[in-house]
Write a structure and sequence with these properties.
Number of domains: 1
Number of helices: 2
Strand order of the largest sheet: 2-3-1-4
CATH class: Alpha Beta
Radius of gyration: 17 Å
Low-confidence stretches: none
């Protein structure tokens, strides 16, 4: 029988921010492609891609994904990362 006590389990999130240099972007379409690839990853809270600065700044849950996962997503849509 249920005791009437509820147990709630909350996952701890460790939000982190990474700035990844992205080479090969030439237009707003490139920015859109990189942004969309990053936002499609579970655990990414925010992705800001800067064409002029050649970088992506990503806020993500470090318990779920790594910077390598972020870089791989960018590379899979055709851009180089540093």
């Amino acid at each position: 029988m249920a005791s009437g006590t509820e147990i709630h389990s909350e996952e701890m999130t460790t939000m982190a921010t990474a700035t990844i240099m992205v080479k090969g972007m030439t237009c707003s379409g490139c920015v859109h492609a990189v942004t969309r690839a990053l936002q499609a990853i579970d655990g990414v809270q925010k992705a800001d891609v800067d064409l002029a600065g050649e970088r992506a700044t990503v806020t993500y849950d470090a318990n779920q994904i790594s910077v390598e996962t972020l870089k791989q997503a960018i590379e899979e849509v055709g851009y180089d990362t540093l």
